Amino acid sequence: MKTSHVLTTFLLAGSVAAIISFYLNPKLQDDPIEPVVKVENQDVAAPSVASLSVEPQQANSARRLATIRSRPDGHYWTRALVNRKSTVEFMVDTGASVVALTYKDAQKMGLRPDKLDYKWEIRTAGGVTMGASVKIDSIQINQVHVKNVDAMVLKTDLDQSLLGMSFLRELYSYEFRGDRMLIRQ
């Protein structure tokens, strides 16, 4: 009697651990996964996910997610809604300490770059240029929406706006998976 009680407890504990592992390590695919526990050379399916009090959609929707894809040049590119009115194409640059805006993109956003104070010396891969510090009200990529982002408008030497660390460090996480970058908030 005690052996069957211990075996039942062990089976239940293993099933619960398998289910917890399933929720803590979500897969990118939406394929259903049924945990299996080995008991005396038999495969026994763990209790169904339906028996849990939290639905899978609720567990996964706790974080807002956006996917950014790489292009053939090897860089990750995205279009973002900036200040709720302008669409700007950014190249993700984890080496940039702040979001860097081209003069043209700053104009598009209504920042009036001709009136900014370009007092900051900025070192880029192309050399040294001058930048003006600005605050972007919001940057939104799909479901991810970050407010009050520090940025620099560069007067010259920038062909493409860069999504730098002043945006990325406000996220819960970001990770690279092959040709995709997943950002979570």
Structural class: alpha+beta
Level-2 CATH architecture of the largest domain: Beta Barrel
Instruction: Write the CATH fold name of the largest domain.
Output: Cathepsin D, subunit A, domain 1
- Average of per-residue pLDDT values: 77
Q: Can you tell me the number of structural domains?
A: 2
**Number of alpha- plus pi-helical segments:** 4
- Report, as a whole number of angstroms, the end-to-end distance: 50 Å
- Looking at the structure, what is the overall shape? globular
Q: Give the tally of β-strands.
A: 12
CATH superfamily of the largest domain: Acid Proteases
Uncertain stretches of 5 or more adjacent residues: 10-60
Radius of gyration, CA atoms, in whole angstroms: 24 Å
CATH C-level class of the largest domain is: Mainly Beta
What series of H and E elements makes up the topology?
A: HEEHEEEEHEEEEHEE
State the helical fraction.
10-25%
Strand content: 35-45%
Report the major sheet: 10 strands, mixed
